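Exercise: predict the structure of this protein bound to pyridoxal-5'-phosphate.
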Amino acid sequence: MRICLYYFCFCGSFHCYGKVNIVGKILVTRSSMPPLEEYVDEIRELWDSHWLTNMGVKHKAFQAALKDYLDVDCVELLTNGHMALELTLQAMNLQGEVITTPFTFASTTHAIVRNGLEPVFCDIDPDTYTIDPEKIEKRITDRTCAIMPVHVYGNVCHIEEIQRIARKYELKVIYDAAHTFGETYKGRGIGSYGDASCFSFHATKVFNSVEGGAVCYHNAALGEALYELKNFGIHGPEEVSAVGANAKMNEFCAAMGLCNLRHLDEEIQKRKAVAERYRERLDGVEGLRLNPLQKDVTPNYAYFPVLFEPETFGASRSEVFDKLGQNGIVARKYFYPLTNTFSAFGGKYDVSETPVALHISKRVLTLPMYADLAPEEVDRICDIILSCQA
Ligand SMILES: *Cc1c(COP(=O)(O)O)cnc(C)c1O
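Solution:
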């Protein structure tokens, strides 16, 4: 019997959850876990070795398994997706401005700012919510050093266009690939694009190692720099050559990753069924817009965002959100607010420069989405949504 569920507090992110005792509530997501016995078997040898962190056997095995699964040249494991972004920027030794979008989780923008770099916000494509390549060049100055696009909700960015611009202006491209674990684009692992792609294995993602993250990259020197930066900048027993952080993935998280990876294909298949059920019920409804199915992409069904056009649907995103909440269903206004409006930045950025992102952020709702969401539950959610129609 499920008596104790996690439920997400109202702090604007999937990340915070409070714990309440509630039965029958449908949450926006639910962490995947392997059978307990499988995890116990996986960690058993740690009781013999007493080697709990610092790149032990589980770390190495998980790294190898990921390289294989993601179909990429090289992978570096980290404590979380945020450190993957932050340390990749540091490892590249960048200075100046980084072009990015505000329609993302706080982490993307914070990684830039915490490196002493300046985020320059570019607007998004109204269909996929990823960076609009036609607006990138106008944002380039002689101080631009990199582009940090986000594959939002698992929607793949306009990779060829971004690559063309990056090559022309000699900019680095670092993808925030936190939402695209396991996806492929044109038959290649999504992590193989750009100079680096950063993944998150947070508990709320399609694939989790409790907390965790990884950087996929091609350049060996970048890998060495990342390896040192995640371990205090230690270069050798008697040499510390960089001001590093501590971002080493421990053995217990790596073991969880190894177990969850074995079940991932099945998890994604189950998510697919949930997404298809949502589409059957909501696609074509006047005033609702669903994300397009992208050509050349093998999706992972990470999220199910719906855009509500109140003029034609007859109810606003907030009204639907409240109605769902009254019925014990937790959806999310994800991504709202935009990162360029955060009070942390004290009004430094002009949100009118990203009008499409602003429009979408006021109208989008991500619906509950996880492997074990039952068809009847999807129907109940859709019934409530459709009952809001004018
Ligand atoms: C989850 C997430 C991150 C950060 O990952 P953590 O593992 O939680 O640190 C970064 N960017 C996006 C878009 C995310 O959704």
